[in-house]
Design a protein that fits this description.
By secondary structure, the chain is an alpha+beta fold. It is about 50% helix and about 15% strand.
Length: about 350
Amino acid sequence: MTLAAVTATAVRFGAPVYLVGGAVRDRLRGVDPLDVDVAVEGDGIAFARQLACDHGWRIVVVHEPFGTAEVVGPDGVVDVASTRTEVYGSPGGLPVVTLGASIVADLARRDFTINALARPLLGDGVVLDPFGGVLDIEAGLVRVLHDGSFADDPTRIIRAARYAARLSFAIEPHTTELVRDGLSGLGRLSNDRRESALALALDEVSADRVVDSLLALGAGGELGLDGDGAMVRDADELARSCAPDAVRGRYRAATLGLGAVRPGSLEALVALAVRDPARRRSIERYLVHDRHVRTELDGADVMRELAIPPGPRVGAVLAELLARKVAGELPDRAAELVAVRTMGGLAAP
C-alpha cells in the first residue's frame, strides 16, 4: 500500500524517484521491509511534501541541508532523500554534502554493496547495482564499498556487525581486514555518535550476535564492551520472564557496562542480576513479585488511624506496612488496619 502510494506521487512529480538501500535489498531477499527509503534526482523535500499532500500523510522531520524528510503514513515511515554526494573533511567527522547528484553517484556514498542498490519506481524497474550488491546478497556477504570507508565514518564498523547479525551474513575477508585496520577510528568519534550507533546495534533483535561480531572484530576495547553475547542472551531471557516492561536497549547496554541507567530502575536491576549472580535470586523475586505488591491503605488512612499530621512519620509507617505486605504477613485491608494500629511507635515524635 505504502509503495503504491509513493509510486502514484512519483508519476505526478516529474523527476526520477528510486526505491533505495535496504528496501531494495530486503525485497530481493523476499522480505517485506519495515520502512520505505526513496531517493529523488531532484528536490527530495518537495517530493516528501507532495507525497504527504497527495495521501493525507504527515511530514515529521525535515533536514534542509541534507535534502531529507521523513513522512509517516498509516502503514509505516517513508524516508525521502535528495540524491547527493558526500566528502569527509576529516576522519570520523561529519561529511560535507552536495545535493543534486546522479543516482549512481548517490549510491557510491553508501556504506556496503548490499545497500548500494536502487530500483526506479517508474519505467522498467530494473535494479541499479553498480557495485555488485546483488551478488553479495546471493553470497551472504557484507562488503564495504571502498578502502577508505571506515576511516571516513568509523560507525560503519558497528553497522557492519549489525548487518552481519541481522541478515546472518558473513563480513567479507577484505572488509574484515579494513575493519581491524580502522578500529582506532572508533576512539575519534564523538560520544554522541558512538553511543547513537551502539544504541541502534543493541536494539536489534539479534543484538547478542552483533556484540559477538564486534568482539570477534576486535572492537570490544574501543567501544568499552564489558561482556559478550551470552550475557545479552541471559539478560533477554531474564527480562522476558521477570521484567517484560524493561526497555531492551537500555538493559542490554547496562549489562555490557555501557551507558547509565537510573539506579533501581528495571533496566539496572536486569543488568545487575546478570552481572552479580549472588544477588540474582533476590532481584528476580523483586521483579516477579515484590515490585507489584501494593498496600490497600494509603497515607490518609494512616493519618486517620494514628491521628498524626502529614510528614515523614506517615512515610515510615507506610514503608513498614509495605515490607510486611511483601513478606506475606498482611493478606487484606483488615489485617493492614490492625498492623497500623500497632505502629504508634513509628509515628511518635
